[in-house]
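Re: that chain you flagged

S.,

Sorry for the slow reply, it's been a week of failed gels. I finally had a moment to sit down with the sequence you sent. For the record, here it is as I used it:
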Amino acid sequence: MSVEATATQHVVPDRRPPAARDPFFDNAKLLLVMLVVIGHSWVLMPEAPSAFPAYTFLYAWHVPAFVLVTGYLSRSFTYSRANLRRLMTTVVAPYLVFETLLAMFRVAVGKESMGSPLYLDPHWPMWYLAVLFLWRLATPLLTRVPQPIVVAVVVSLLGGLIDVDLFDVSRATGLLPFFVLGLTMRREQFDWLARARVRTVAFAALATAFVVAAVVAEPLSTEWLYWRSSYDAMGVSVWQGMSSRAALLVVAGVLALSALSLVPRSQRWFTPLGAASLVVYLCHGFFVKAAQYADAGRWVRLDEVTSFVIVTGAAALLALALAATPVSRRLNKLVDPISTAVEDTPGILPPHHHREHAQHRLALHRNHPERF
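Prediction finished late last night. Pasting the structure tokens below so you have them in one place:
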């Protein structure tokens, strides 16, 4: 069955044991969160969007691919008490903690002004947890409506008419089709993407996209790739905006699936690190901001190409370091404070909420297949 055929189907629950971890998704989460860190590190090079095709190429698909994987891992979410409790402990709690810590860091160290309400308007990488909260709450509804992909595309196109900063609703609607695509896909379809012929086509699609990015990098406004601004803010008419976003949905979807096609399916040395994707995502911003405050970008202008390679390599190493078990286990006390407190202080919450022993859970629900 083709991937496209899922657009007209309701979600079919996976038959895999709920406690099984799939190496493919751990590999995908690590590689994609590493790309997120790399993309954010390029803020040290102000000219990156126009000077380096890699920026336009990366932003065209890496966030949509991350959203797609998150959608697939959200398939079993229901309005059960256990799921709602888990939503509060693994999404809302870390959002409140890291929104606070990052704001304090930016004000105290960087002397920045927040400029927008704390918690209501997510700052920098915190947007993902805000929209993930909204997507998870909508999941039971999205899995029951007819033609969920069509509905999501319509919502995305209409979302360009509004400009809502509250909980980054504009970005939640813009990226919704990729989340729903993940919801509607089945594991066998990810296996289909791994076929030799499909991988050949996927590699060709990504290579072509990189060449095209070299041409459009300068004239194309990268704001389109952030999925957050209204058509009016982009300076285009409604019909121009809708047609542009529709085309971008297709391009980003194809490239995201192409990238996932090339992700290794088997256990690799880095596979266990994929369980630390949330730790990497939430913690990397402090390092990037620290480098920015230290004016690390001043030497970028001396040799842009060399600095681009160095910054990219350093960002990849940072992601691996944060994902390493000794580091992620300790940082998880901030990333998942409620569950950590419950484990350390039995009796705070009902017994079924307690986690497995620390040596099994490490820092990240290692045995929970939905862990983002």
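What I noticed first: The radius of gyration is 20 Å.

Talk soon,
D.
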